[in-house]
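Raw record, unedited: Fluoride-specific ion channel FluC
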Amino acid sequence: MGLDGTRTGSRTGPPASPPEPTTPTTPAALPGAAHPAHQRASLALLVLAGGAVGSLGRYGLTLALPQRHGWPVGTLVANLVGAFLLGVLLEMIGRRGPETAAATRVRLTLGTGVLGGFTTFSALALETERLLAQGGAAIGTAFAYAGVSLVGGVLAAAAGVALGGVLAGRRGGAA
């Protein structure tokens, strides 16, 4: 009997879990998709192509902006600019309403591909470790670099979201 006095019946297994919410980024929500996004070769190729473009852009930036006073300037700039642009992109896509097939392609190509390839957490970790390994004054540089990268990345993304909201509002896409 249930707490309200009604018969509840018996169960042989664990209680059913609630259905997973469907959001624009869950595979079930991708419009017109016969298969989840990660199983669609066409979308994987878009991410691959975008990643190649972004990685080449980051490589060029690190050549143009070499280390200064122990700071890996190219990686820092790539990560901050990438976080900002990702904030703009995702906010503008999000403000347009439910994700369409075209928006999915743009998000995966530019967000996951280009900006995912342009930014790099692994280089941040490696460069921080190398600075720490130098010891002495480089330890302070390592902590400053990691802190500026992480806090700056969050602030850059927030600024990008704010700008994306303004731009989406100008285009008539604001909620």
